[in-house]
Amino acid sequence: MMNDLVARLGALPTAAISDALDRAGIKGALHGLSPLSNDFRAVGPAFTVRYAPVNECGVGTVGDFLDDVPPGSVVVIDNDGRTDVTVWGGIMTEVAAHRGIAGTVINGVCRDVSASLAQSYPLFSRGRFMRTGKDRVRLVAVDEPVTVSGVEIHPGNLLCADADGVVAVPAVETERITETAERIERVEADIVAAAHAGSTLREAREKFGYHTLQTRTQA
């Protein structure tokens, strides 16, 4: 069942999924995260990681958690939005791509961009910067909830990412959000078809209920 939903979400743009989340009154859009390539797409259950600045010992490490990430997962790294040190680089990209990990979302920055592009490994971040996080940040939590852009992401939440950015779908809401997003896509396709057939955009939008597509439903 979940694999089917992942496949269906993977066929949908994040714009439709975001609209479906809005209609359900669920906050899920991760503001400020962008792909390294507009061709990148990723969808899968979240494997969550959280970093913090090094303590007084000045010793830290990045990346060893990758051995525990199941294939098909989307790694979600919370480095508190820092853009002065990286928490993902070329070695991690090569290993993740080889192991079938679906992609990585970083509340922070990455480096070794060329490796990501060469491997077609989907990376979404707040930017790119070459300075290592080793001995500057430390791993403080794995497989625990993290908060990115004000959105709480639990392990197993579905992460969907494409050229427009990243959205997080609560696991318990996946079926409802998927069905709503698919309906939104169908309605928008009907509007375009009607306009191509000679209807005015105003008439087509009115006919197919465009202006209420994202209106929050009542529980």
From TrEMBL:
Sorted keywords for this record are:
Magnesium, Metal-binding
Binding positions (substrate): G89, G90, I91, M92, R111
Which of the seven top EC classes does this enzyme belong to? lyase
Chain segments annotated as coiled-coil in the UniProt record: none
Give the GO molecular function terms: 4-hydroxy-4-methyl-2-oxoglutarate aldolase activity; metal ion binding; oxaloacetate decarboxylase activity
Q: What is its EC number?
A: 4.1.1.112, 4.1.3.17
Catalytic activity line of the entry:
4-hydroxy-4-methyl-2-oxoglutarate = 2 pyruvate; oxaloacetate + H(+) = pyruvate + CO2
Q: Which residues bind Mg(2+)?
A: D112
Q: Which Gene3D superfamilies match?
A: Ribonuclease E inhibitor RraA/RraA-like
Say if the entry is tagged with keyword Magnesium. yes
Pfam families attached to this UniProt entry: RraA-like (PF03737)
Q: Which cofactor does it need?
A: a divalent metal cation; Mg(2+)
Show the InterPro entries listed in the entry: RraA/RraA-like, RraA/RraA-like_sf
Q: Which PANTHER family match?
A: 4-HYDROXY-4-METHYL-2-OXOGLUTARATE ALDOLASE 3-RELATED (PTHR33254)
Q: What does this protein do?
A: Catalyzes the aldol cleavage of 4-hydroxy-4-methyl-2-oxoglutarate (HMG) into 2 molecules of pyruvate. Also contains a secondary oxaloacetate (OAA) decarboxylase activity due to the common pyruvate enolate transition state formed following C-C bond cleavage in the retro-aldol and decarboxylation reactions.
- Assigned protein family: Belongs to the class II aldolase/RraA-like family.
Oligomeric state and interaction partners are given as: Homotrimer.
The name this protein goes by in its record: Putative 4-hydroxy-4-methyl-2-oxoglutarate aldolase
